[in-house]
């Protein structure tokens, strides 16, 4: 009962934010927050929007199998955000864009524009729904099943509340609610770490020393080029992941485009880019502390490392307060990513696909439609009930970002025009060729591609555009 009251109280606070930020809201408010957002609020809120509910439960578990090597990618993130801030943002602000894919129409043509928008809609809808599904399953399994709440009610209730507090104010509301949710997420994380330290009878200095001396505190892998955790693979992948999944993603860029000026948007981008190293260091440190606690208590570490944090936090072994904190943390992390995804999908459909930026009725219907699609997709994933299917969907989503990388790279770094009618075919063929290359390479050499597949996919799209240049 305490958990239900906590979640309801949390939602009530979000609705209060929505009420105050959606007064006299127009389509311009929904899409761009009237370009009046304080950069520091955007920066803080973007941390939570970038850290999904899956990250909240998965990153601590990463320390079990890959130590702290994920930080290598986080170092690459920093350079990626600098490139987005000083290469992409000036273009978006100069053209005064509502959606970033409008740039493709200006530079390459109408079909390139529609292709980029469509690839974003496909990948974001599936990816966001899968992430939200995983969070719903975790909450259901570790918290809500004990209260007798059906999964259907959980999904409809959570998606419905996201729709409710974003339906009027849109991106203006999200700037404030995401900041609040980021604050809740980090408070929950820090308090959970404190409770684990208490269970281990460690003070702060002793905990830092224990983590640093643990064998799982390894960060860098320099020599093993075959490893997916090799420094240069992860570092370079981190750069390109940020460029594509932030700089070329309407969901991630929409809040940045609400800043008052380019300079403020650049300060926002650089600030929250730097925050990812300490944020993920906290998550990984929690993972190491949980492994220490499991060894001391004689508890087997779960085979699915994503269950490491829920195993302790949601089962009551650390106390009922930690259950509440875990619930708040995972809800805050998942909501701050799902709400912005729903708003960005609505924006892209209305502005890019339908080209009716000022149609308020269309915007409201579209927003409700994507909320319903979220529910349908989540229930479909539950019906499939197969981890391999979910993994396959994630892989498909990663392939769909490659063509966006190729399209924007060709537009920004060349002066060639392309034969626009061929662009949709190039964007569809490139992931297929990329998949074939990955499969043949794995079967013939044993080498497994990691995140570098994104770069290969983008390169294939670039080459295809080059071959079809005018």
TrEMBL record:
GO terms for cellular component: plasma membrane. It is found in: Cell membrane. It is a multi-pass membrane protein. One of its GO terms (molecular function) is symporter activity. It holds the Pfam family SSF. InterPro entries: Na/Glc_symporter_sf, Na/solute_symporter, Sodium:Solute_Symporter_SSF. Signal peptide: none annotated. Its main location: membrane. Keywords: Cell membrane, Ion transport, Membrane, Sodium, Sodium transport, Transmembrane, Transmembrane helix, Transport. GO terms for biological process: sodium ion transport. The chain crosses the membrane at residues 6-22, 42-64, 70-97, 118-143, 149-166, 173-197, 231-248, 269-292, 312-335, 366-386, 392-413, 425-443, 449-468. Belongs to the sodium:solute symporter (SSF) (TC 2.A.21) family. This is Transporter, SSS family.
């Amino acid at each position: 009962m305490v958990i239900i009251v906590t979640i309801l109280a949390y939602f009530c606070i979000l609705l209060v934010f929505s009420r105050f930020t959606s007064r006299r809201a127009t389509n311009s408010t929904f899409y761009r927050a009237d370009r009046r957002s304080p950069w520091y609020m955007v920066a803080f809120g973007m941390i939570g929007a970038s850290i999904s509910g899956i990250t909240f439960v998965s990153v601590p578990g990463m320390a079990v199998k890959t130590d702290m090597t994920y930080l290598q990618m986080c170092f690459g993130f920093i350079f990626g955000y600098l490139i987005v801030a000083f290469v992409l943002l000036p273009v978006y602000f100069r053209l005064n864009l509502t959606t970033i894919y409008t740039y493709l129409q200006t530079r390459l043509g109408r079909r390139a524009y529609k292709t980029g928008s469509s690839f974003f809609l496909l990948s974001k809808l599936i990816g966001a729904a899968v992430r939200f599904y995983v969070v719903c399953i975790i909450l259901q399994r570790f918290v809500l099943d004990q209260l007798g709440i059906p999964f259907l009610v959980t999904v409809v209730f959570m998606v419905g509340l996201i729709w409710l507090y974003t339906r009027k104010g849109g991106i203006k509301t999200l700037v404030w609610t995401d900041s609040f949710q980021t604050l809740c997420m980090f408070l929950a994380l820090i308090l959970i770490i404190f409770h684990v330290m208490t269970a281990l009878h460690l003070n702060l200095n002793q905990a830092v020393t224990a983590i640093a001396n643990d064998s799982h505190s390894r960060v860098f892998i320099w020599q093993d080029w075959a490893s997916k955790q090799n420094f240069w693979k992860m570092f370079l992948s981190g750069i390109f992941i940020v460029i594509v999944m932030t700089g070329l993603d309407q969901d991630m860029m929409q809040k940045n485009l609400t800043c008052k000026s380019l300079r403020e948007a650049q300060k926002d981008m650089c600030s929250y880019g730097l925050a990812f190293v300490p944020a993920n260091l906290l998550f990984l440190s929690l993972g190491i502390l949980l492994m220490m606690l499991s060894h001391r208590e004689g508890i087997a570490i779960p085979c699915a490392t994503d269950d490491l944090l829920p195993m302790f936090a949601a089962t009551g072994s650390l106390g009922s307060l930690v259950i509440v904190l875990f619930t708040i943390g995972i809800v805050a992390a998942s909501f701050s990513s799902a709400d912005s995804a729903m708003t960005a999908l609505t924006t892209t459909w209305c502005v890019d696909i339908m080209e009716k930026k000022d149609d308020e009725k269309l915007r409201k219907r579209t927003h409700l439609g994507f909320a319903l699609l979220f529910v349908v997709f989540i229930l479909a994933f539950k019906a499939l009930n197969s981890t391999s299917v979910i993994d396959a969907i994630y892989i498909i989503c990663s392939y769909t970002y490659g063509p966006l990388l190729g399209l924007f790279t060709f537009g920004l770094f060349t002066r060639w025009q392309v034969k626009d009618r061929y662009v949709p075919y190039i964007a569809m063929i490139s992931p297929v060729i990329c998949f074939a290359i990955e499969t043949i390479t794995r079967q013939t050499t044993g080498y497994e591609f990691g995140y570098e597949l994104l770069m290969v996919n983008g390169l294939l799209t670039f080459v295809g555009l080059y071959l079809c240049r005018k």
